[in-house]
Amino acid sequence: MTYGYFAKISLKSWKRHRLNRFPQFAIPRESRQTKILMETYDIICIGAGPTGLACAIEARRAGMRPLVIDKGCLCNSIYHYPVNMLFFTTPELLEIGDLPLVCAAEKPTRVEALKYYRRTVEHYDLELRLFERVLRVEGSDGRFTMFTRTEKGIDRQYGAAKIVIATGYYDLPNEMNIPGENLPHVSHYYTEPHEYWREPVVVIGGKNSAAEAALDLYRYGAHVTLIHRDRELGASIKYWVRPDIENRIKAGQIQAHFQTRVKEITEDEVIIENGAGEKRLPAKRVFALTGYHPDFEFIESLGVRLDPETRRPAIDPNSLESNVPGIHLAGVVIGGRFTGEIFIENGRFHGKQIVEALVRNREKAAGGHA
User: Fold this and answer.
1) Which of 112, 134, 144, 364 has a 20 to 30 A CA-CA distance from 177?
2) Mean pLDDT of 307-328
3) Who contacts 221 (Cβ-Cβ below 8 Å, separation ≥6)?
4) What is the architecture, at CATH level 2, of domain 186-288?
Protein backbone atom coordinates (compact mmCIF):
# COMPACT_ATOMS: atom_id res chain seq x y z
CA MET A 1 0.00 0.00 0.00
CA THR A 2 1.17 3.49 -0.76
CA TYR A 3 0.49 6.85 0.86
CA GLY A 4 -1.68 7.67 -2.17
CA TYR A 5 -3.97 4.79 -1.34
CA PHE A 6 -4.56 6.06 2.18
CA ALA A 7 -5.23 9.53 0.84
CA LYS A 8 -8.14 8.16 -1.21
CA ILE A 9 -9.96 6.38 1.62
CA SER A 10 -11.79 7.94 4.55
CA LEU A 11 -10.37 8.01 8.05
CA LYS A 12 -13.22 5.78 9.20
CA SER A 13 -12.38 3.18 6.52
CA TRP A 14 -8.70 3.32 7.45
CA LYS A 15 -9.51 2.67 11.13
CA ARG A 16 -11.70 -0.29 10.15
CA HIS A 17 -8.92 -1.66 7.94
CA ARG A 18 -6.33 -1.23 10.72
CA LEU A 19 -8.48 -2.97 13.35
CA ASN A 20 -9.25 -5.83 10.97
CA ARG A 21 -5.52 -6.46 10.44
CA PHE A 22 -4.39 -5.64 13.99
CA PRO A 23 -7.28 -6.39 16.38
CA GLN A 24 -4.89 -6.46 19.34
CA PHE A 25 -4.69 -2.66 19.12
CA ALA A 26 -8.44 -2.13 19.47
CA ILE A 27 -9.44 -0.02 22.51
CA PRO A 28 -12.47 -1.39 24.40
CA ARG A 29 -15.55 0.82 24.03
CA GLU A 30 -15.76 1.65 27.74
CA SER A 31 -12.10 2.69 27.83
CA ARG A 32 -12.57 4.96 24.83
CA GLN A 33 -15.56 6.67 26.45
CA THR A 34 -13.73 7.15 29.73
CA LYS A 35 -10.62 8.60 28.14
CA ILE A 36 -12.54 10.96 25.89
CA LEU A 37 -14.60 12.33 28.77
CA MET A 38 -11.81 12.56 31.36
CA GLU A 39 -11.41 16.25 32.26
CA THR A 40 -10.03 18.04 35.28
CA TYR A 41 -11.81 20.80 37.22
CA ASP A 42 -10.84 23.10 40.04
CA ILE A 43 -14.00 22.21 41.91
CA ILE A 44 -16.83 19.73 41.34
CA CYS A 45 -20.19 20.36 43.02
CA ILE A 46 -22.32 17.26 43.58
CA GLY A 47 -25.90 18.49 43.42
CA ALA A 48 -27.51 20.87 40.92
CA GLY A 49 -29.90 22.57 43.31
CA PRO A 50 -29.68 26.26 44.27
CA THR A 51 -26.84 25.60 46.74
CA GLY A 52 -24.73 23.62 44.28
CA LEU A 53 -25.32 26.21 41.57
CA ALA A 54 -24.37 29.03 43.95
CA CYS A 55 -21.11 27.22 44.74
CA ALA A 56 -20.30 26.88 41.04
CA ILE A 57 -21.11 30.56 40.40
CA GLU A 58 -18.77 31.72 43.18
CA ALA A 59 -16.04 29.42 41.88
CA ARG A 60 -16.46 30.84 38.37
CA ARG A 61 -16.25 34.38 39.73
CA ALA A 62 -13.00 33.48 41.51
CA GLY A 63 -11.44 32.35 38.24
CA MET A 64 -11.89 28.62 38.85
CA ARG A 65 -13.30 26.03 36.50
CA PRO A 66 -16.32 24.42 38.20
CA LEU A 67 -18.48 21.45 37.22
CA VAL A 68 -21.90 20.54 38.63
CA ILE A 69 -23.09 16.92 38.61
CA ASP A 70 -26.57 15.67 39.54
CA LYS A 71 -28.26 12.28 39.30
CA GLY A 72 -31.50 14.03 38.31
CA CYS A 73 -32.56 17.13 36.43
CA LEU A 74 -31.64 20.72 37.18
CA CYS A 75 -33.06 21.64 40.61
CA ASN A 76 -34.43 18.12 40.90
CA SER A 77 -35.97 18.68 44.35
CA ILE A 78 -37.90 21.78 43.30
CA TYR A 79 -39.04 19.98 40.16
CA HIS A 80 -40.65 17.30 42.36
CA TYR A 81 -42.45 19.79 44.60
CA PRO A 82 -46.27 19.93 44.24
CA VAL A 83 -47.14 21.36 40.83
CA ASN A 84 -48.93 24.44 42.15
CA MET A 85 -46.64 25.05 45.13
CA LEU A 86 -46.04 28.59 46.37
CA PHE A 87 -42.74 29.27 48.13
CA PHE A 88 -42.86 30.26 51.79
CA THR A 89 -40.25 32.98 51.25
CA THR A 90 -39.99 36.13 49.15
CA PRO A 91 -38.09 36.09 45.82
CA GLU A 92 -34.97 37.97 46.92
CA LEU A 93 -34.21 35.23 49.46
CA LEU A 94 -34.05 32.62 46.70
CA GLU A 95 -31.66 34.59 44.50
CA ILE A 96 -28.14 33.43 43.66
CA GLY A 97 -25.37 35.06 41.67
CA ASP A 98 -26.78 38.55 42.28
CA LEU A 99 -29.47 37.96 39.65
CA PRO A 100 -33.03 39.14 40.42
CA LEU A 101 -35.90 36.66 40.62
CA VAL A 102 -38.92 38.35 39.06
CA CYS A 103 -42.34 36.91 39.89
CA ALA A 104 -45.95 37.94 39.37
CA ALA A 105 -47.00 37.95 43.02
CA GLU A 106 -45.39 38.58 46.39
CA LYS A 107 -44.03 35.03 46.62
CA PRO A 108 -42.66 32.94 43.75
CA THR A 109 -44.24 29.76 42.46
CA ARG A 110 -42.47 26.50 41.72
CA VAL A 111 -42.65 27.23 37.98
CA GLU A 112 -41.14 30.72 38.41
CA ALA A 113 -38.30 29.36 40.55
CA LEU A 114 -37.43 26.65 38.01
CA LYS A 115 -37.38 29.23 35.22
CA TYR A 116 -35.15 31.50 37.31
CA TYR A 117 -32.56 28.82 38.02
CA ARG A 118 -32.49 27.75 34.35
CA ARG A 119 -31.81 31.34 33.32
CA THR A 120 -29.14 31.67 36.02
CA VAL A 121 -27.26 28.65 34.67
CA GLU A 122 -27.47 30.09 31.16
CA HIS A 123 -26.29 33.52 32.31
CA TYR A 124 -23.16 32.15 33.98
CA ASP A 125 -22.70 29.45 31.33
CA LEU A 126 -22.20 26.81 34.00
CA GLU A 127 -20.97 23.39 32.97
CA LEU A 128 -23.43 20.70 34.11
CA ARG A 129 -23.70 16.93 33.90
CA LEU A 130 -27.32 16.04 34.63
CA PHE A 131 -28.87 12.58 35.01
CA GLU A 132 -25.43 11.31 36.01
CA ARG A 133 -24.85 9.49 39.30
CA VAL A 134 -21.61 9.73 41.29
CA LEU A 135 -20.49 6.18 42.06
CA ARG A 136 -17.34 6.81 44.07
CA VAL A 137 -14.43 9.17 44.61
CA GLU A 138 -10.76 8.20 44.80
CA GLY A 139 -7.59 10.16 45.41
CA SER A 140 -6.89 13.00 47.82
CA ASP A 141 -6.98 16.77 48.17
CA GLY A 142 -5.92 18.39 44.91
CA ARG A 143 -5.99 15.08 43.02
CA PHE A 144 -9.46 13.56 43.30
CA THR A 145 -10.89 11.26 40.64
CA MET A 146 -14.67 11.06 40.48
CA PHE A 147 -16.35 8.04 38.87
CA THR A 148 -19.88 8.50 37.52
CA ARG A 149 -22.46 6.68 35.42
CA THR A 150 -25.06 8.26 33.14
CA GLU A 151 -28.67 7.09 32.95
CA LYS A 152 -27.69 5.33 29.70
CA GLY A 153 -25.04 3.32 31.52
CA ILE A 154 -21.98 5.17 30.26
CA ASP A 155 -19.14 5.28 32.79
CA ARG A 156 -17.18 8.52 33.09
CA GLN A 157 -14.31 9.94 35.12
CA TYR A 158 -13.49 13.50 36.15
CA GLY A 159 -10.51 14.97 37.92
CA ALA A 160 -11.08 17.54 40.69
CA ALA A 161 -8.89 19.57 42.98
CA LYS A 162 -11.81 20.18 45.40
CA ILE A 163 -15.25 18.65 45.92
CA VAL A 164 -18.44 20.17 47.35
CA ILE A 165 -21.30 17.93 48.50
CA ALA A 166 -24.59 19.79 48.06
CA THR A 167 -26.94 16.87 47.54
CA GLY A 168 -29.88 18.14 49.61
CA TYR A 169 -32.31 15.68 51.16
CA TYR A 170 -35.55 15.54 49.16
CA ASP A 171 -34.58 12.43 47.17
CA LEU A 172 -34.74 10.08 50.16
CA PRO A 173 -38.06 9.84 52.05
CA ASN A 174 -38.26 8.65 55.65
CA GLU A 175 -39.87 5.28 55.13
CA MET A 176 -42.31 3.75 57.61
CA ASN A 177 -41.14 0.19 56.90
CA ILE A 178 -44.62 -1.28 56.93
CA PRO A 179 -46.33 -3.80 54.63
CA GLY A 180 -47.75 -2.17 51.50
CA GLU A 181 -45.59 0.96 51.60
CA ASN A 182 -44.28 0.22 48.10
CA LEU A 183 -47.64 -0.40 46.46
CA PRO A 184 -48.25 1.61 43.25
CA HIS A 185 -50.90 3.88 44.80
CA VAL A 186 -48.62 4.93 47.68
CA SER A 187 -46.32 7.93 47.21
CA HIS A 188 -43.91 9.91 49.39
CA TYR A 189 -44.40 12.93 47.12
CA TYR A 190 -47.54 14.97 46.57
CA THR A 191 -48.23 16.24 43.06
CA GLU A 192 -51.71 17.58 42.30
CA PRO A 193 -55.28 16.80 43.41
CA HIS A 194 -57.55 16.74 40.36
CA GLU A 195 -57.80 12.98 39.80
CA TYR A 196 -58.89 12.36 43.42
CA TRP A 197 -62.14 14.34 43.24
CA ARG A 198 -64.74 12.48 45.33
CA GLU A 199 -62.22 9.70 46.06
CA PRO A 200 -60.98 8.60 49.53
CA VAL A 201 -57.40 9.75 50.12
CA VAL A 202 -55.21 9.16 53.17
CA VAL A 203 -52.41 11.59 54.02
CA ILE A 204 -49.81 10.38 56.54
CA GLY A 205 -47.82 13.03 58.42
CA GLY A 206 -48.30 16.12 60.55
CA LYS A 207 -45.99 18.83 59.23
CA ASN A 208 -46.22 21.38 56.42
CA SER A 209 -46.20 18.97 53.48
CA ALA A 210 -48.97 16.82 54.95
CA ALA A 211 -51.11 19.77 56.07
CA GLU A 212 -50.85 21.57 52.73
CA ALA A 213 -51.55 18.39 50.76
CA ALA A 214 -54.62 17.61 52.89
CA LEU A 215 -55.97 21.13 52.38
CA ASP A 216 -55.34 21.05 48.64
CA LEU A 217 -57.04 17.68 48.25
CA TYR A 218 -60.01 18.83 50.34
CA ARG A 219 -60.51 21.95 48.21
CA TYR A 220 -60.52 19.84 45.06
CA GLY A 221 -63.28 17.63 46.39
CA ALA A 222 -61.36 14.62 47.73
CA HIS A 223 -62.47 12.82 50.91
CA VAL A 224 -59.36 13.33 53.03
CA THR A 225 -58.18 11.58 56.17
CA LEU A 226 -55.03 12.76 57.94
CA ILE A 227 -53.00 10.32 60.06
CA HIS A 228 -50.34 11.57 62.49
CA ARG A 229 -48.37 9.64 65.11
CA ASP A 230 -48.07 12.60 67.52
CA ARG A 231 -50.64 14.27 69.75
CA GLU A 232 -50.94 17.39 67.57
CA LEU A 233 -49.70 18.93 64.33
CA GLY A 234 -46.03 19.90 64.06
CA ALA A 235 -44.84 23.15 65.61
CA SER A 236 -43.13 24.24 62.37
CA ILE A 237 -46.34 24.47 60.31
CA LYS A 238 -46.58 27.84 58.51
CA TYR A 239 -48.54 30.41 60.49
CA TRP A 240 -51.22 30.86 57.81
CA VAL A 241 -51.59 27.10 57.23
CA ARG A 242 -52.13 26.12 60.86
CA PRO A 243 -55.52 27.83 61.47
CA ASP A 244 -56.74 26.62 58.09
CA ILE A 245 -55.97 22.94 58.69
CA GLU A 246 -57.13 23.08 62.33
CA ASN A 247 -60.47 24.64 61.36
CA ARG A 248 -61.04 22.08 58.61
CA ILE A 249 -60.41 19.29 61.12
CA LYS A 250 -62.72 20.84 63.76
CA ALA A 251 -65.47 21.20 61.17
CA GLY A 252 -65.10 17.55 60.15
CA GLN A 253 -64.23 18.55 56.58
CA ILE A 254 -60.92 16.72 56.96
CA GLN A 255 -60.95 13.63 59.15
CA ALA A 256 -57.92 13.33 61.44
CA HIS A 257 -56.48 10.61 63.66
CA PHE A 258 -53.73 11.69 66.09
CA GLN A 259 -51.48 9.47 68.18
CA THR A 260 -52.14 6.87 65.55
CA ARG A 261 -49.83 4.29 63.97
CA VAL A 262 -50.18 2.96 60.42
CA LYS A 263 -49.87 -0.83 60.57
CA GLU A 264 -50.36 -1.78 56.94
CA ILE A 265 -51.46 -0.50 53.55
CA THR A 266 -53.46 -2.75 51.25
CA GLU A 267 -54.64 -2.16 47.68
CA ASP A 268 -57.73 -0.26 48.85
CA GLU A 269 -57.35 0.35 52.60
CA VAL A 270 -55.04 1.76 55.27
CA ILE A 271 -55.00 -0.17 58.53
CA ILE A 272 -54.37 2.06 61.56
CA GLU A 273 -54.06 1.50 65.29
CA ASN A 274 -54.47 3.84 68.28
CA GLY A 275 -55.95 3.89 71.77
CA ALA A 276 -59.36 3.05 70.33
CA GLY A 277 -58.06 -0.09 68.68
CA GLU A 278 -57.59 -1.03 65.05
CA LYS A 279 -59.46 0.56 62.16
CA ARG A 280 -59.55 0.21 58.37
CA LEU A 281 -59.78 3.33 56.23
CA PRO A 282 -60.70 3.24 52.52
CA ALA A 283 -57.95 4.72 50.33
CA LYS A 284 -57.86 5.24 46.59
CA ARG A 285 -54.51 7.01 47.09
CA VAL A 286 -52.05 7.26 49.97
CA PHE A 287 -49.58 10.14 50.40
CA ALA A 288 -46.98 9.17 53.01
CA LEU A 289 -45.51 12.62 53.66
CA THR A 290 -43.28 11.55 56.53
CA GLY A 291 -40.25 13.71 55.75
CA TYR A 292 -36.92 13.18 54.00
CA HIS A 293 -33.24 12.86 54.87
CA PRO A 294 -29.82 13.40 53.23
CA ASP A 295 -27.96 10.50 51.65
CA PHE A 296 -25.89 9.68 54.73
CA GLU A 297 -24.56 6.47 53.19
CA PHE A 298 -23.09 8.32 50.20
CA ILE A 299 -21.55 11.03 52.39
CA GLU A 300 -19.91 8.42 54.62
CA SER A 301 -18.64 6.53 51.55
CA LEU A 302 -16.45 9.57 50.84
CA GLY A 303 -14.84 9.25 54.26
CA VAL A 304 -16.77 12.08 55.91
CA ARG A 305 -17.48 11.42 59.60
CA LEU A 306 -21.08 11.79 60.74
CA ASP A 307 -22.24 12.05 64.32
CA PRO A 308 -23.94 8.73 65.18
CA GLU A 309 -26.95 10.47 66.73
CA THR A 310 -27.49 13.74 64.86
CA ARG A 311 -25.77 12.62 61.64
CA ARG A 312 -24.19 16.06 61.40
CA PRO A 313 -20.90 15.97 59.45
CA ALA A 314 -17.56 16.89 60.98
CA ILE A 315 -16.74 20.24 59.31
CA ASP A 316 -14.70 23.38 59.85
CA PRO A 317 -17.30 26.11 60.58
CA ASN A 318 -15.31 28.68 58.58
CA SER A 319 -14.42 26.80 55.40
CA LEU A 320 -17.11 24.07 55.65
CA GLU A 321 -14.32 21.59 54.87
CA SER A 322 -14.95 18.12 56.27
CA ASN A 323 -12.51 15.84 58.07
CA VAL A 324 -11.46 14.73 54.57
CA PRO A 325 -9.15 17.48 53.23
CA GLY A 326 -10.53 18.95 49.99
CA ILE A 327 -14.12 17.75 50.52
CA HIS A 328 -16.55 20.48 51.63
CA LEU A 329 -20.26 20.33 52.42
CA ALA A 330 -22.96 22.90 51.66
CA GLY A 331 -26.68 23.30 52.18
CA VAL A 332 -29.05 21.12 54.15
CA VAL A 333 -26.60 18.18 54.44
CA ILE A 334 -24.77 20.18 57.11
CA GLY A 335 -27.80 19.85 59.41
CA GLY A 336 -27.78 16.06 59.48
CA ARG A 337 -31.15 14.79 60.67
CA PHE A 338 -32.28 18.37 61.38
CA THR A 339 -33.32 19.21 57.83
CA GLY A 340 -35.47 22.12 58.98
CA GLU A 341 -32.47 24.21 60.00
CA ILE A 342 -31.09 25.03 56.55
CA PHE A 343 -33.07 26.24 53.54
CA ILE A 344 -32.27 27.89 50.22
CA GLU A 345 -32.33 31.23 52.05
CA ASN A 346 -29.22 30.46 54.11
CA GLY A 347 -27.69 27.54 52.19
CA ARG A 348 -27.15 29.73 49.12
CA PHE A 349 -24.36 31.57 50.98
CA HIS A 350 -22.33 28.43 51.67
CA GLY A 351 -20.76 28.51 48.22
CA LYS A 352 -19.32 31.97 48.83
CA GLN A 353 -18.03 30.85 52.21
CA ILE A 354 -16.27 27.83 50.71
CA VAL A 355 -14.76 29.66 47.75
CA GLU A 356 -13.52 32.55 49.88
CA ALA A 357 -11.71 30.03 52.10
CA LEU A 358 -10.16 28.37 49.04
CA VAL A 359 -8.99 31.71 47.68
CA ARG A 360 -7.45 32.64 51.03
CA ASN A 361 -5.57 29.36 51.15
CA ARG A 362 -4.42 29.81 47.56
CA GLU A 363 -3.14 33.30 48.25
CA LYS A 364 -1.46 32.15 51.43
CA ALA A 365 0.29 29.33 49.58
CA ALA A 366 1.36 31.70 46.80
CA GLY A 367 2.77 34.14 49.36
CA GLY A 368 4.71 31.38 51.02
CA HIS A 369 6.40 30.48 47.74
CA ALA A 370 7.16 34.09 46.81
Assistant:
1) 134
2) 96
3) 196, 197, 198
4) 3-Layer(bba) Sandwich (3.50)
